[in-house]
Amino acid sequence: MTELRRDPIIGRWVIVATERARRPSDFEAEPEFSSSGFCPFCPGHEKKTPTEIMAYRGDSPPDGPGWEIRVVPNKYPALRVEGELDKEGVGIYDKMGGIGAHEVIIDSPVHKSQFYTLPKEHVRDIFKVYRERVLDLKNDIRFRYIVVFKNRGKSAGASLEHSHSQLIALPIVPKRVHEEIAACRSYYELKERCIYCDIIRHEISAGVRVVEENESFIALSPYAARFPFELWILPKRHSLNYETEDDGRLFQLAELFANVTYKIDKALSNPAYNFLLHNSPLRTDGNEHYHWHFEFIPRLSKVAGFEWGTGFYINTVSPEDATRYLREIPTG
Amino acid sequence: MTELRRDPIIGRWVIVATERARRPSDFEAEPEFSSSGFCPFCPGHEKKTPTEIMAYRGDSPPDGPGWEIRVVPNKYPALRVEGELDKEGVGIYDKMGGIGAHEVIIDSPVHKSQFYTLPKEHVRDIFKVYRERVLDLKNDIRFRYIVVFKNRGKSAGASLEHSHSQLIALPIVPKRVHEEIAACRSYYELKERCIYCDIIRHEISAGVRVVEENESFIALSPYAARFPFELWILPKRHSLNYETEDDGRLFQLAELFANVTYKIDKALSNPAYNFLLHNSPLRTDGNEHYHWHFEFIPRLSKVAGFEWGTGFYINTVSPEDATRYLREIPTG
Fold first, then answer.
1. pTM, 2 dp
2. Domains, chain A, ordered by start
3. Which residues in chain B are closer than 8 Å to A198, comparing Cβ atoms?
4. Staple partner for A274: which of A164, B272, B286, B305, CB 3.0–4.6 Å?
């Protein structure tokens, strides 16, 4: 059983593994992905994953080949669905049980697929699967927040090469999300406008940090980007919840993501990257002024001591330069 | 000229390089340290660094050999001493000039020295140099905060192998420090006690997360550690400012650091690591209840998308296990 512990100073919750004592020798350098190795996510190997939660497949039976997108529980979950929250004080500290869900969304049967190598409809279906899983997990009243994310490449934290995304449902709202929501609320109280809507308007008019846009979505390099080539992808009209977006808008999101990931791969020679959905909490009131979005971060530079210790980042590529480089790449 | 930009949502300031447009190809994988390469920090190469700011040396003249510890400006500074703050609004955003100081403390003439291979008095002198530089830079009224830190190893962000520390003086107080200070203040208002003092008392009595202690200092694995083998090193009695510590106490700090780094190197096979001084801001009132400390983080695991996107960390080694492993290592 893992547990959630709260830092008494900062208020940050951390998932601490208590069940499996990793020995120091477990931290020897991990090998790079082996291209000849066995892949548990490839078709025909369905029995090597836990039983599937859902799949987009024709008439083929579950846990066999014939699927296009497949969702399975993470085999080594950070949190587990079974059990009670068991909130408890321990001396001056606070903890609760490691309750949650940890799922893997296998993007496609193709081992190395990218959003820009798949048909647009297939990419839209990946975004539909995100939506369906959020809608389903929302029914569990123990969960407060759902994070959908992708780690691509070893240095982005991926442990398998086969293209996949992940989802974690949490019994608390992460501190970072709390901060974003509080900022949206106080900005709205001051100005009666959404701060993300204001940023989008400002960026479209300024024109120097917009990498890509279509009718419904925009990809921009934020003014105070922490990392070189950091991007935010946002719905252009105000929208609180990802899961309320319809299929037509998710198709446009898929088109934008395909273009952005193509440009990033061309500009930066297929870097490791992460992207992560910043969505509204599941059932907290008072977040009406939030605006869901994705944050996209290529993992180009090592985050050094200064950065993690202060939360103060040094970005060696200005957002305006990053935007210019990416814009110049034709998507054909 | 670099500039400081403020994220309009979270309020986080970021240093953005605007002078030197790094091209995407600059991000190709960097090679590991070459052991045969030229080292600008080794004795005899003093002319390869900017003019020294201070040094512990006998009668030898500046910028030549004969030193024990040497402080020089960073050749590629994140911030510069010259210029004005030029605080400015840019549309909906806020920025200021990249004013500050960025210095390198070369720990010893020996290319690869560790705190536990140097004489204790020499390590104390390194901590004295930190103190002297903080006291000197405090006189510049443009600076609000000074960060002292060490990056050891490529994956911790070090660009040179020769043992060194760094110092950055900032014109703002980092958000993370603001949060720690606010937490200390509200805890004190509630209980009339320092929260770090309470944690130290609790940990000495609980006994399962104390790695090392002497008369004046304690090294512990924090209850809600973000990273495997994360450690905090704190003065046992309440102390607001690092720079008020006397030579005798800095000798004890040196002893503790020597033991802790020895154990970390033995347990984890010389991992990359960062440590960072969390000190009181330079001139803000209202931080009387802060308690300075070092945070020490071995860089063992890749920080994945989930972590950076939410500030919610998954730690695969419990602080109690980490403490047990480290305690079992004899320091002789």
1. 0.92
2. 3-20+36-327 (3.30.428.10)
3. 92
4. B305
